[in-house]
Amino acid sequence: MAKVREIWRDLVITLREHHLSGPTREARFLLAEVLSTSPSRIYLFWDHEIGREKMEKLYLLLQDRLNGVPLQYVLREWEFFSLTFEMKRGVFIPRLDTESWVEEALLTLRTRFKTETGIVCDLCCGSGVIGITAAYWVPNIQAYGVDISTEAVNLALKNARKLGVDKQMVFVQSDLFDFFKSIAVVQFDMILCNPPYVKEDDWSTLSPEITGHESKIALVGGHDGLDLIRRIINDSPQFLKKDGLLYLEHDPSQVDAIADFAIYSSFQLDHVISDYQQQPRATVFIKK
Which domain holds residue 32? Predict the structure, then answer.
């Protein structure tokens, strides 16, 4: 039987030969999965030997990864804002850039709702990471998670239960606000949204990891990537309280077009948030 240090070395070599980015990091994640530990702790097992059953599991995980399956789907979970979420093939994978603006939104929520209750909508919720993170770190809010995909809504509910915030949340399958148009008016204090915003023509230029495994409907927003963003900016005000906020993620190249949309809406553009690469990643609107 081989020791962990030897297996890790061989994993790094194999991943590098297949031109996967971050082979040392990915090797840690794969080994951590079979060792049932965190990636930062595999060094504690450095001189341990791995038995046949775990080696077989590692081999299957590695084959999926070498076949282009995203690491998040291979591991079936991923971390967002220090919380671990279950992932499922076909449901949008959360990106690090989203954390940049969610961090500010959480600080705003914590300031506004120290004692009173706030109502938040996670629109286009996917696996639920944004709304669940808000509910977890801001106990005084109630949150709705909304997605057009039933599969995504079911996964989001599962993640909410796993993290103990399901009592604070309601998940609905809906094409944006359609569900809320058919019931008594719900008004939110804040809408948090990471919508599809990839241009149709750009879909084929994305990596095979994305086009072969992630949901196109969760990523592509029409010919210019702005189809859903237009609808969201147009429809959101009727579901927001006075001075309510809309946090809207977008591609850095779309920031000017989105600012123009606000001119003809019931919103006032408040500010733009940059991601960790210092690119404009989200625009914040306030209801006039």
Answer: 4-67
